[in-house]
Design brief:
Helix content is 62%, strand content 0%. It is mostly helical. It is globular, with a radius of gyration of 16 Å.
C-alpha cells in the first residue's frame, strides 16, 4: 500500500468526497469509509465536510506517481459502491478523474456499466475479472465471507 503525501491526501479526499456526494447525498457508508481511510491509511485529520470540490485537472496536478494514481482510482471504485450501486453521475465523475490521472483501470469501466444499469455486462465482467475468476484460476485459497448472510439475493 502506497502512502500519499499531505497534498496528495487532501486532493484525494476532496475527490472521494465529491464522488460520494455525486449520488445526491453524503451517505453514511461512504462517510465512514472515507473517515476510516483518513485515520488508518492517510494519517490525516481533515474536516471532510469542509473540503471543497476538486476538478479532474487539479487532482491530476497533485498526483505525479502513476502507481499512486492507480491505487487512488481503485479506491474510488470502493467509495462509489459504499452506499449502493453507483449512479450515472458517479460513473461520469470517476471516469473523468481516471482519464485526467492517465489511469486505464478496468474497474472504472465496470462501475460505469453498473451505473448505467448494464447489470448483465457488469455480472459478466465481474465473473471474468473478479473474485470468481481468481477462484477458478486457483490464485486464491478461500471463499469470501458474505457481508450479509441473511440476504438471499445477490447482485
Amino acid at each position: 500500500l502506497l502512502r500519499p503525501g499531505p497534498a496528495q491526501a487532501e486532493a484525494g479526499l476532496r475527490a472521494m468526497r465529491q464522488l460520494a456526494t455525486a449520488r445526491g447525498e453524503f451517505g453514511s457508508a461512504s462517510r465512514a469509509l472515507i473517515d476510516a481511510a483518513q485515520r488508518q491509511v492517510l494519517h490525516t485529520d481533515f474536516d471532510i465536510d469542509s473540503l471543497p470540490p476538486i476538478t479532474a485537472e487539479e487532482l491530476a496536478a497533485a498526483f505525479d506517481d502513476p502507481a499512486l494514481a492507480r491505487q487512488f482510482v481503485q479506491g474510488m471504485t470502493v467509495v462509489s459502491l459504499a452506499d449502493g450501486p453507483p449512479t450515472e453521475a458517479q460513473g461520469r465523475l470517476m471516469a473523468s478523474y481516471a482519464r485526467a490521472l492517465g489511469v486505464d483501470e478496468p474497474a472504472v469501466r465496470v462501475m460505469n456499466e453498473l451505473a448505467n444499469h448494464h447489470t448483465v455486462l457488469f455480472r459478466l465482467d465481474f465473473m471474468r475479472h473478479g473474485f470468481p475468476a481468481a477462484i477458478m484460476s486457483g490464485t486464491t485459497t478461500h471463499a469470501p465471507q458474505r457481508a450479509c448472510p441473511h440476504r438471499s439475493r445477490s447482485w
